[in-house]
Design goal:
Strand order of the largest sheet: 6-7-8-3-9-10
Radius of gyration: 17 Å
Distance between the termini: 31 Å
Order of helices and strands: EEEHEEHEHHHHEHEHEEHH
CATH architecture: 3-Layer(aba) Sandwich
Mean pLDDT: 90
CATH topology: Rossmann fold
Number of strands: 10
Structural class: alpha/beta
Number of domains: 1
């Protein structure tokens, strides 16, 4: 579904990614792990066209490198940034409404026909009932956990075939982490692929089909959760354990 081939990325003259290559297959959860500064968030931004990069980024076989971010999103790739990027002055319901892509829908991503939306308001509120109770509340007044739920659901309203989600559990209480984990597994069951950028090793190993580890802007491990559990050297050198 998604393939990165020899991606190099830059912030001005700073060379951040050094030949990153990996793939995300349909309907799987791939965790991208690593310490802060390893290049995980930059990888997500490169996929979404938010940083200067070189190399090939293939979406269903077509190279999307160089496209505008909104064009990439309309092809069926959803993005939940680390800062969540909600609209604080709008209500929960209004934020979700802005996530809809009129006439795009899951037809491009899931094969159900243009405009045949996979996710609805009712399904979003079913995933996170706390949002239903606060649907008329301004998003800026929500707790951190509620804002993360809203950011994830707003992205889902665009019916992505793949969702790239950056540090969704950072700073959240354990019960909210469990809710987010359950939601990601629900996405997988519905056929949505997930690229999960995460620091919590336990969470990543529990829900992922494959695990990538980044170090100094490179992929240093690509394998199964069991393979990473068995590789003490990789964990000790490149992860905070």
């Amino acid at each position: 579904m998604l393939q990165l081939k020899n991606i190099h990325a830059f912030y001005g003259k700073s060379h951040v990614l050094h030949g990153v290559s990996f793939e995300v297959r349909p309907g799987e959860i791939v965790a991208l792990l690593g310490r802060n500064g390893s290049g995980r968030s930059t990888t997500a931004k490169a996929i979404m066209g938010l940083v200067e990069s070189s190399g090939a980024i293939l979406w269903k076989g077509a190279d999307i490198a160089g496209l505008k971010t909104y064009q990439i999103a309309r092809l069926g790739i959803g993005y939940v940034p680390e800062n969540r990027a909600i609209f604080p002055g709008l209500t929960v319901h209004q934020n979700l409404l802005l996530g809809q892509k009129v006439g795009v829908g899951v037809g491009a991503g899931q094969g159900q026909g243009q405009g045949a939306a996979l996710w609805s308001f009712d399904e979003m509120y079913g995933l996170f009932p706390a949002l239903l109770a606060r649907q008329h509340t301004e998003a800026g007044l929500l707790s951190g956990g509620e804002q993360q739920m809203l950011a994830l659901c707003r992205t889902l309203m665009g019916d992505p075939a793949l969702i790239v989600i950056d540090e969704p559990t950072e700073g959240l209480a354990p019960q909210i982490v469990a809710l987010v984990s359950q939601c990601l597994q629900t996405l997988k069951a519905s056929g949505v692929a997930v690229l999960l950028i995460e620091q919590k090793l336990t969470l990543a190993l529990a829900i992922s089909d494959r695990v990538l580890v980044m170090g100094r802007g490179r992929i240093v491990f690509d394998g199964t959760p069991a393979g990473l559990q068995a590789d003490a050297a990789i964990r000790q050198e490149w992860l905070e354990v």
